[in-house]
Design brief:
With about 200 residues, this protein is α+β, with helices and mostly antiparallel strands. It has helices at about 35-50, 55-70, 100-110, 120-140, 175-185, 190-205; strands at about 15, 25, 30, 70-75, 80-85, 85, 90, 95, 150-155, 165. Helix 5 packs antiparallel against helix 6 (about 190-205). It starts with 13 loop residues before the first strand and ends with a helix. The relative contact order is 0.13.
Length: about 200
């Protein structure tokens, strides 16, 4: 798949591998359901392999360039950062709770960047990692139960409301708390523990 990575770095959900030459179905790219773990494993395979297999880091960096350039969006009116889905070259302004792992992944990518934490791409990843984690926290804080929807929309409907629930079920997804843990561990900022405590209390209620 390293040799088949699309120019924008973003892999489609579906790969046809029952043929001699692997083919990619370019209809949908997402950092949410069914696509999330693939991007996560690019970085973590490189780290867990002692940072010796550079192709995985290169795949990750190219994919994250595509994510920043094509998927990262800002909501209205509050300017919350989220990642949309790319569907047949059009953006679908929804974000799965599953995509909330991206905050921790971007932070981990920044702190392990071969060019250093102060490099432009590492700082870009860290800024967006913190921003999307804040959005995922708001997906909890802005709902009466204190729990996030399975899928949130960011298309301003109802009017002047940044976040609305597309799928309102709460399935004990770990991704937001995972990002809170990683950011607290890497940055030492206690706000991430405080947000995690709020979420825990909401679950207990």
């Amino acid at each position: 798949l390293a040799d088949k990575q699309p120019p924008n770095g973003l892999y489609p959900l579906n790969v046809q591998n029952d043929v001699t030459d692997i083919r990619l179905d370019a209809s949908k790219s997402t950092l949410g359901g069914n696509g999330d773990s693939f991007y996560e494993y690019m970085l973590k395979t490189w780290i867990q392999g002692g940072k010796k297999e550079g192709k995985y880091r290169k795949m990750f960096d190219k994919a994250m360039d595509g994510a920043h350039n094509e998927l990262v969006q800002k909501s209205s009116p509050d300017g919350l950062t989220y990642v949309a889905d790319l569907q047949s070259n059009h953006l679908d302004h929804k974000m799965d709770h599953l995509a909330c792992f991206m905050g921790g992944l971007w932070a981990l990518g920044a702190y392990t960047n071969p060019d250093g934490l102060d490099s432009p791409k590492a700082q870009r990843d860290l800024v967006h990692g913190k921003a999307i984690t804040y959005t995922c926290y708001q997906m909890y804080a802005r709902f009466p139960t204190g729990l996030a929807p399975e899928i949130a929309r960011f298309d301003g409907n109802p009017k002047d409301q940044d976040i609305s629930a597309q799928v309102s079920a709460y399935l004990l997804r770990p991704e937001t708390v995972e990002s809170l843990f990683i950011l607290n561990f890497l940055t030492g900022d206690p706000v991430y523990r405080e947000w995690g405590w709020e979420i825990f209390q909401a679950i207990e209620r």
